[in-house]
Structures are given as structure tokens and as C-alpha cells.
Description:
The protein is mainly beta and 277 residues long. The protein has one helix spanning 2-32, and strands at residues 33-36, 39-42, 49-58, 64-75, 81-84, 97-100, 103-106, 111-119, 130-139, 156-168, 178-186, 189-196, 202-212, 218-222, 226-228, 233-239, 247-256, 264-272. Strand 17 and strand 18 form a beta hairpin. The two termini are 42 Å apart.
Amino acid sequence: MTITTNLKKVSRIITIMVLLLSVLVWDTYAQKISTSPTRMNFKVEPGASGRGKITVSNNSATKQGFQVNFGDFSASVTGKSQFSEKGVQSRSCADWLTATPAVFELEPGETQDVSLIMDVPSDSAALMARWAVAYVRLREPELAEKGAGEGLNVKVNQSYRFGVYIFQTPPSATESRGEIAGLNYENNLFTINMKNAGETFLRCNSYIELTNLATGVTERITTRGFTMLPALSRNTVFTIPEETPAGRYSVLAVMDYGNREEVEAAEMEILIPERGN
């Protein structure tokens, strides 16, 4: 029993050390390699093409090789990006994208502009908003390896990649609408469940206003802005400050999604109990 327990402890320690080493290596690469911008917006008509540009910089002291390819992403209800192979998401536009150059090398201090071309088909698939991600991956610094009867063979390191979010909105998709689908208060946390009910990408800000029903004192709590994909939902969670006095409150929850004429709002009464010492 003791031997088994010790082996488990050693295994855990080794796992933690490997994870820490991976994080340190990744942080090192992230500081030495950069891409810009981090997101790109296309508004291409069905049957037409659009062009964008990303810039890759090698700020390291060694020669680096790169490859650009494409995949899909979505977002969880907590707002965390979820990445997958291209063609997995129903709203993917990864197959519409190409990169030039797709494979290149950079000496220390060099930069490379990469053209991203969006070729939109002329069928009904082009009538809704779609999205994808462009990956800039580190690879072996040799541009090509020749084998017997073989052509270009690129070794890509799948562990280190930098993503650029790609958004394609057809000009005909103009409905911009956000909805508050629900409110919840539990364990000192106030949650707004929001939905993108339109056909455009929403850049949202949300906040709550706590009004003490006994004193009339109002306090606003805000969060950072975020992007919502069409047809998806997101929860924004607010922590009620510990110093907020106990009592009954009216909570106004606001979702500002960039519409100059209106915002989405909902109201709920909550009881903040006495905190223990």
C-alpha cells in the first residue's frame, strides 16, 4: 500500500513538473513570436473575394519556421474558446480561406506579411455569418526535406500555435439583436444568461446595478467587453462585493451590444444575507 501511494505521489509530481515546463516553454515562445492583428473581419458578398493581412514577427535570437493553416472555433457558455479541426462547426468558413505564403522562415528580427484570401461561394451557405481561425504554427526551420521520390515535406510542431480569429459577415446580414434569457443569484454570485439572437457578431458590454431598497443607494458592477457569435449563448457572472451591506436589493442587469438606440435589460430582486465573520 505504501509503495503504491508513493508511486502515485511521484507520478503526480512528474505530471506537475511537465505541465510547468510546458507553460514556461510556451511563455518563452509567446514572448519571442508575435502575430498581428489577433482578429480579422470580412464583409464579402456571395461569389466574391476579400483580402486581409496578418504580420508575423520573429523576435527570438534564432531562425524560425512557420506554417499557416485554418481550423474552427466556437465558444462555451462561459466564453472560453473551443478549437477544432476545420469543417467541424456548422458555421465554419475555414474552407473558404487560403494563405500566401503558407510556409516561410524568418531570421531573427524579421517580419513576414501573410495575405489571407476569403473566397465566398455563391450558394446559400454564403448568406449567413461564419467564422474560423487562422493558425500560425511553429515548425522545423528547414523549408523542405527531400526523400526518395518525395516532394515538400514540412514538419510542423503542433504544440506551439498562434491564432487569429476570422469573422465573415455577408453585407445582407444586418440584424443585430441581443437578448437576456435569464437571471440567477446564488452564493453571492449574480449571473446573466445572454443570447445573440441576431445575425451579426456582437461586441458586448454588460453590467449590473444594485439598488438597496431600504436606503436607495445604487452600486454598479461591470465586466470586460466580449464578443458573442450568432445563435450562441453566454453567461456573465458578477461577484457581489463582500462590503455590500445585507438587505433586499433590486438588481438591474444590462446587456449593451452596440445598438445606439437600445440596450437589453432585465430586473430581479435579491436578498443579500448577513456575512459571517
